[in-house]
Design brief:
Layout: H1 13-19, H2 23-30, H3 41-47, H4 52-62, H5 77-106, H6 112-148, H7 158-163, H8 170-182, H9 190-227, H10 239-249, H11 254-261, H12 265-279, H13 284-293, H14 299-308
């Protein structure tokens, strides 16, 4: 079931994984486990306590379905920071050490000078990645946490991070080309080809990591710094949830909402339960006030509904 459109919370998570298996890495960095059956993306995210719009923003950006700037207003910066920190752990504690072990096995030590030079090149590269990510952990993320808490943070800015945001995958690309073009051939190529495949994959993963930082994280933090407002706790309402609130305050039944939005009545009930949890509002009257205050509906629309459905 390949699809080229953007994914939404109503799509099934199993379809997303089968369409684009690379999303498995995104799931692991958000802490989403397998075994979710036929649940929707939103249902899986909520069960895993993951901010659904942030998960979808990362997925749709990396699958080249959406411009990152269009996603910035919908993400949770704290959820995005957690994702990036988990990515650092993945690269430094799993991915790069795994490639190093395979590289040691693949390099033919009969070419001792070449083998030594390749391993030294790789270790220097890992040191650069470690330095880059440590800078983010020690400088950038604490700055972001201070912004989220509403504290004054004039000693640093994301423009500084942008200027020093090295493309950490470039040196890996150089190592890949050196092995392909200049490493002496031998009869045992499976191990070397295997580690080259891993290097290609890791290079792509690092490029994706940088894309999330450049196209979503940095603009979102800059917007937060400009607004000077701490991030609200809890999940923001999704676009679908806002649509359902509008339908509720207009007096529509669950079946009418389902027919209007082309979703199942069960999904409507799930959304309404989630809305109540997020807003701590459990009545239609309370949702009406919320919808008017947040400009989801005009008072005239509510008045017309009341007149059409007198008590």
């Amino acid at each position: 079931m390949y699809q080229s459109r953007s994914y939404s919370g109503e799509d099934r998570m199993c379809d997303l994984v089968c369409d684009k298996y690379a999303v498995l890495q995104v799931m692991s960095r958000f802490g989403i486990s397998l075994g979710f059956g036929d649940q929707t993306i939103q249902e899986v995210c909520e069960a895993s306590k993951v901010h659904t719009p942030t998960f979808l923003a990362v997925v749709n950006l990396l699958l080249n379905h959406t411009d990152g700037m269009l996603l910035v207003e919908h993400v949770s910066i704290r959820a995005l920071t957690d994702y990036l920190q988990n990515s650092h752990t993945y690269f430094l504690e799993f991915r790069l050490p795994s490639i190093r072990r395979k590289l040691i096995e693949a390099v033919d030590y009969s070419h001792s000078d070449v083998s030594f030079a390749i391993m030294r090149f790789f270790d220097e590269y890992v040191s650069e990645v470690d330095k880059h990510m440590s800078y983010e952990e020690k400088t950038v993320f604490p700055y972001v946490e201070a912004l989220l808490a509403g504290k004054e943070t004039q000693s640093y800015s994301m423009e500084t991070f942008r200027r020093h945001h090295d493309r950490v995958e470039s040196r890996l690309n150089e190592l890949k080309n050196i092995i392909i073009k200049y490493y002496p051939t031998n009869d045992e190529t499976n191990e070397l080809n295997g580690v080259l495949f891993d290097i290609f994959t890791c290079e792509h993963e690092l490029t994706s990591h940088n894309a999330v930082e450049n196209e979503i994280f940095i603009p979102a933090v800059e917007q937060l710094a400009s607004n000077g407002q701490p991030e609200q706790k809890g999940e923001l309402l999704s676009a679908r949830e806002r649509e359902i609130i509008v339908c509720v305050v207009k007096g529509m039944t669950n079946k009418q909402i389902a027919d209007t939005l082309c979703i199942s009545a069960h999904t409507v009930i799930t959304h309404r339960r989630n809305i109540a949890t997020k807003l701590q509002i459990h009545s239609a009257a309370g949702l009406t006030i919320y919808a008017i205050v947040n400009k989801l509906v005009e008072l005239s629309e509510i008045s017309e509904t009341i007149n059409e459905n007198p008590a």
